[in-house]
Amino acid sequence: MLFEKPKHHHHHRVSEFQAVVLAGYGSSNRLYPISEEDNMPKALLPVGNKPVISYTLEWLEKAGIHDIIVVIQAIGSAPQKLSAYLRTYTGNVHCQVVSVDEDDETADALRAIKDKIDVNRDIWMLNELMPCDLITELNPRDFFDAHRVCDPTFSALFYEPGSTESASKDDDLLPYVGIDSTRNALVYKALRSEDEDFSMRMSLLNKFPRVRVHTDLQDAHLYIFKRWVIDMLVEKENITSISKDLIPMLVKCQYQKKLVEREQIEKYSSTYENLLANALSLSTTQSADIDDELFMDDPVHSSFKSPIKTYVHVYRGGFCGRGNTTASYNELNRYTTKQGASITRVPSSAEVAPRTQVGNDSIIGDYTKIDERSSVKKSCVGAHCVIGKNVKIANSVIMDHVVIGDNVKIEGCIICNNAKIHEKASMKDCDVAGGYIVDKDSQLKGEKLVAFREAI
């Protein structure tokens, strides 16, 4: 969530946003067992040997946003671990970590932190909501500038996922996304299933007769809201989830007069409208169609001018992905370490034997030792690892302090901190929890290995 705080200067107004980053909401169970308590919170999972949240913070800083609230569920020592990392983060941002109840949904979390959010009631106050696991090549200023031009109630980012993300076995079907192409308005969003029919209300089509329905777009869960939406959210405690409750309600309010009345939307948005009307009345360059564009007539209820206006930013052609499943988390690691990325592949503190190969699509962490005749391809190996002779690692993520014995083969695996893989083990498509010990000569495929309980 971003807030834009006006700074009053004599010559011009400088916008300043406040961001809210949700660190590990909703999908931690889909990352089982790699985000378990004995490993690390989701926000700190390494991507290219950097915590995934660092990419979010860098992206916000690139957008000129320096005031960030990081919200994390109070599970075990997760808030302490995240706070400890953020104290060492070297970027030019100010982060405050707020922990909320582990049962809180996304909208509940915003209610819990309402006192931390800037209370300035100005028309330009915006709120941005952002997940901690989004990595994208999208220039943030493209998104923010489009939002400023359209001046909607909320803006949302949708992207065309890569083939690996959309086809991964643990990902759902992409949703139906209806966009009014004349205004880039988000007018419809529904989950897809193989056996369900597709339907759309007549009131939607009357208001937005030119809707294009997309089945190749993913919701990035990156939103910018008007400040009054947060005020409304605080009062409406029946809204628990932003993506499942709040967004659908706002989308429907664009064309459902009764819903606008029932939810008393005018009460919350009226401050904005009055300020806007006042600003337009003082404008010397106002064109006749500005007001019409902002509050378009509904042909069915000609007196109904919806106070809600949405904007959807569709990003295609560059990388955009979220690490909210084990498959997509693996894909983020492959992207950040791909050939040509400007990263240090093998730091000077690492010890790699002369006859060992580290591919130019891989990365090795500090103080890691790899013995001879081993190979690392399309993989991230963390810090302080000890890897034996004749070990083959491909398409995998090896976290910190992992010990791998001689003659081990690892392909398509995620191996968490402090795990031990004994000699001659062969593993394919496995997820290994922190501290787990894999026995000598094990032959494992497609398993989730968790200490102190049976593998599932």
From TrEMBL:
Question: InterPro entries annotated for this entry?
Answer: eIF2B_gamma (IPR051960), LbH_EIF2B3/5 (IPR056764), NTP_transferase_dom (IPR005835), Nucleotide-diphossugar_trans (IPR029044)
Can you cite an annotated GO cellular component? eukaryotic translation initiation factor 2B complex
Q: What GO terms in the biological process aspect are recorded for it?
A: cytoplasmic translational initiation
Q: Which PANTHER family match?
A: TRANSLATION INITIATION FACTOR EIF-2B SUBUNIT GAMMA (PTHR45989:SF1)
Indicate the quaternary assembly: Component of the translation initiation factor 2B (eIF2B) complex which is a heterodecamer of two sets of five different subunits: alpha, beta, gamma, delta and epsilon. Subunits alpha, beta and delta comprise a regulatory subcomplex and subunits epsilon and gamma comprise a catalytic subcomplex. Within the complex, the hexameric regulatory complex resides at the center, with the two heterodimeric catalytic subcomplexes bound on opposite sides.
Membership in a protein family: Belongs to the eIF-2B gamma/epsilon subunits family.
**What is the protein name for this chain?**
Translation initiation factor eIF2B subunit gamma
The root-end lineage is: Eukaryota, Fungi, Fungi incertae sedis, Mucoromycota, Mucoromycotina
